[in-house]
Specification:
Elements: E1 2-5, E2 15-21, E3 28-29, E4 34-39, E5 44-48, E6 53-58, E7 65-67, E8 71-77, H1 82-89, E9 108-110, E10 116-121, E11 131-137, E12 144-145, E13 150-155, E14 160-164, E15 169-174, E16 181-183, E17 187-193, H2 200-206, H3 232-240, H4 259-267, H5 281-292, H6 307-322, E18 325-333, H7 335-350, H8 358-371, E19 377-379, E20 386-388, E21 394-400, E22 403-405, E23 408-409, H9 417-432, H10 438-441, E24 446-449, E25 469-482, E26 488-501, H11 507-522
Parallel strand pairs: 21-24, 24-25
Antiparallel strand pairs: 1-8, 2-4, 2-7, 3-6, 4-5, 6-8, 9-10, 10-17, 11-13, 11-16, 12-15, 13-14, 15-17, 18-26, 19-20, 21-22, 21-23, 25-26
Helix pairs in contact: 8-9, 8-11
Length: 532
């Protein structure tokens, strides 16, 4: 028996929040099996098991702060195959008080007719996902289901997922009500398969049946109806007003139900009372009236801040309150840069690369940093030393479904323009899918935030500590400018907003650095003189 000591999980990290336990006390775990998810001020980190063994104690609850180099959980080493034999041997055969949520496998559940039901165990539904919300049951207890038939819709912190039946059979039990949280690797529903390889009596004798848990509320039967497309926000609105999504006519593509459709449905007079909430017409009219006006009586919807958003909240507060920000804005004429990109784009696409403006911004920045290395440095915690970083790892802020992520392109100074373009494409796709690796999130030295992609012009970006500078790119606008002869011409103007750490970067330094970077972007062919 030994304690697992939480190791170093990032440069300068001394503590972390325990987000989710992926195991429970008493579980037998394999070497390198994920045990817990912890959140630092930079990223979500998965803690694996050091060896095969049995978890005997968890030292923290979810939401607690765990210290680096302190015990995280207690583990008893298990050798060979003994771990798989010990767990059943430790239980008498007649023990039947194990609940479905505590079972490690899919136990059989007895029915009144003597048939044996199987538990469907909620599988992994996304990297790092340990629980999800049951949004809508597509079947009811007693329904016959076919193989691959949709059974339930669940919502993770990244997407809506449709769970299908593993085989044909009859549903005997739903372990969760709608809007409850279900855990990965725990029973979701029980069913009796239609075809069996052995008699039910033999299966009943060979497997102990778990004790029946309290009966769950039976949802409204949905049968085998086709799934109605609607966003999670719309489905939540439907539930809040006790409506049936099937009763609402969708005006979106492929019959998709929009928020406006729900509001319009609420405004319509009801011809008959709703089964879920018997109400008179005056009561329904009052509810619709309350929805239309900004009523003070309506309750606010409360949503906990978790995962990447929680980490971003902590790091942004720390950065804004501990780093004195110096803001500097400038206009850059990118007319020639846009023309050069159009010339190079066909050749880049021929080799499978997507050439946007971002690789040019990064490459020009890496060249300018060679003359102004303080923009690519870090301060120590005591603010007594400047650490000049050997490589230019440029981060780019990506607005993903899971929250703001800042993966970085490593060693921009040594990559070709196409190499940078390939990395930008890879990291952008990974971030939007919520699958950025920890390695891609670590080691950034300076950051670019492209607010112009959403239409913004000016910004006051917050530095991504421990970096010392960040730039926000505004949208490119067609604006009038005077040429060398005094004539008004149309030019493509990009506004950029810099934020620098005023403890080591003064206004003159960031202005000179920006001018050098601007020079490369306004005359992109000049970069050829400095490429290594």
């Amino acid at each position: 028996m030994s304690d697992f000591i939480l190791p170093d999980i990032g440069e300068g990290i001394v503590e972390c929040e325990l987000v989710k336990w992926l195991v429970a006390e008493g579980d037998i775990i394999e070497e390198d099996q994920p045990v817990a998810e912890v959140m630092t001020d930079k990223a979500l980190v998965e803690i694996p098991a050091p060896y095969k063994g049995k978890v005997t104690r968890l030292y923290h609850k979810e939401g607690d702060i765990a210290k680096v180099h302190a015990p995280l959980f207690e583990l008893v080493e298990v050798d060979g195959e003994s771990g798989q034999d010990e767990a059943p041997a430790a239980q008498p055969k007649e023990t039947v008080n194990e609940t479905p949520a505590e079972a490690d496998t899919a136990p059989a559940a007895g029915t009144d007719s003597g048939e044996v039901a199987e538990d469907f165990i909620l599988p992994d539904i996304g990297e790092g996902i340990v629980e999800c919300e049951v949004v809508e049951w597509r079947v009811a207890e007693g329904d016959e289901i076919e193989e691959d038939q949709p059974v339930v819709d669940v919502m993770t912190d990244k997407a809506m997922v449709e769970i299908t039946a593993p085989k044909a059979g009859r549903v005997t039990r739903l372990y969760h009500q709608q809007q409850e949280m279900a855990r990965v690797h725990a029973p979701l529903f029980a069913f009796i398969p239609r075809d069996r390889d052995e008699p039910a009596e033999a299966r009943a004798e060979s497997r102990p049946a778990p004790e029946s848990a309290p009966a769950t509320a039976k949802p409204v039967p949905t049968g085998n109806r086709q799934r109605i497309p609607a966003s999670p926000a719309v489905r939540r609105l439907v539930r809040e007003h006790n409506l049936d999504l099937a009763d609402i006519t969708g005006s979106g593509k492929d019959g998709r139900v929009l928020k406006a459709d729900v509001l319009a449905h609420l405004d319509q007079p009801k011809s008959s009372p709703q089964p879920k909430q018997p109400a008179t017409e005056p009561t329904q009219a009052k509810a619709a009236s309350e929805h239309r006006k900004p009523g003070r009586e309506l309750e606010a919807r409360v949503e906990p801040i978790r995962g990447v958003r929680a980490a971003m909240a902590r790091s942004m507060v720390a950065s804004a309150t501990t780093i004195p920000h110096f803001i500097y804005s400038e206009d850059i004429d990118v007319t020639d840069l846009l023309a050069l990109r159009e010339q190079l784009k066909p050749e880049a696409e021929a080799r499978g690369s997507r050439l946007t403006l971002m690789p040019f911004f990064m490459k020009a920045m890496a060249l300018a940093i060679q003359e102004f290395p303080v923009l690519n440095s870090r301060l120590n915690d005591e603010v007594t030393e400047i650490h000049y970083q050997p490589h230019c790892n440029i981060g780019m802020a990506v607005d993903s479904k899971a929250g703001l992520m800042v993966p970085n392109v490593k060693g921009v100074e040594s990559l070709t323009l196409l190499g940078v373009a390939d990395e930008v494409t890879r990291l952008t796709e990974a971030a939007r899918a919520g699958r950025v690796s920890q390695e891609d999130l670590k080691g950034g030295t300076i950051t670019i935030s492209n607010i112009g992609a959403l239409g913004g012009t000016y910004a006051s970006p917050i530095i991504n500590a421990p970096e010392v500078a960040i730039v926000a790119l505004g949208r490119t606008q067609k604006l009038p400018r005077f040429d060398a002869n005094g004539n008004v011409v149309e030019r493509a103007i990009l506004t950029v907003s810099w934020a620098g750490d005023h403890r080591i970067i003064d206004g003159g330094t960031i202005a000179r650095f920006c001018n050098r970077w601007k020079g490369y972007l306004e005359s992109p062919q000049s970069m050829l003189l400095h490429l290594g």
